[in-house]
Automatic annotation (TrEMBL):
GO terms for cellular component: bacterial-type flagellum basal body, rod. This is Flagellar basal-body rod protein FlgC. It is found in: Bacterial flagellum basal body. Residues 98-137 form the Flagellar basal-body/hook protein C-terminal domain. The keyword Amino-acid biosynthesis does not apply. Pfam families: Flg_bb_rod (PF00460), Flg_bbr_C (PF06429). Residues 19-43 form the Flagellar basal body rod protein N-terminal domain.
């Protein structure tokens, strides 16, 4: 879609819809990251069982037929296939016959970086909506004075 061919009011509405769809996507990303952080130490309840597996999220574009613009949507919430780490802890309830416990494949540094990136993207889209509202108000003021 060519943004220059959109009329002013439509462009403001479409930019707000785009920002809102991106905010929903980043909000979903933050929920996944939060779940990963909360379960970073969650092991199995049974000996030799698998611990919590890190979740991942991917996005896709989806055409909004009303506006003709591409919106951001969640494509999939998946499982990270990175191998689990092992800790030697023979007294742990999830220890296997050799005394090793599978630990979640959650790297807190990666999760914190993802959280920071998602937060910044969310904030940028909030600013986009604020700017759209300001432009809308300015347009209405200009129409009143002409």
């Amino acid at each position: 879609m060519n943004v220059s061919s959109i009329e002013g009011g439509d462009a403001i509405a479409i930019s707000s819809k785009l920002a809102a769809s991106a905010m929903r996507a980043q909000s979903a990303r933050l929920r996944i990251v939060s779940e990963n952080v909360a379960n970073a130490e969650t092991t199995a309840n049974t000996p030799g069982g698998d611990p919590y597996a890190r979740k991942t999220i991917t996005f896709r574009e989806q055409l909004d037929r009303a506006s003709g613009a591409e919106m951001v949507r969640v494509r999939d919430v998946g499982i990270d296939r990175t191998p689990f780490q092992f800790d030697y802890d023979p007294g742990h309830p999830a220890a296997d016959e050799k005394g090793y416990v599978k630990k979640p494949n959650v790297n807190l540094l990666i999760e914190l970086a993802d959280m920071q990136e998602a937060t910044r993207a969310y904030s940028a889209n909030v600013q986009m909506i604020k700017f759209s509202r300001t432009l809308s108000s300015m347009t209405i003021d200009l129409l009143r004075t002409s």
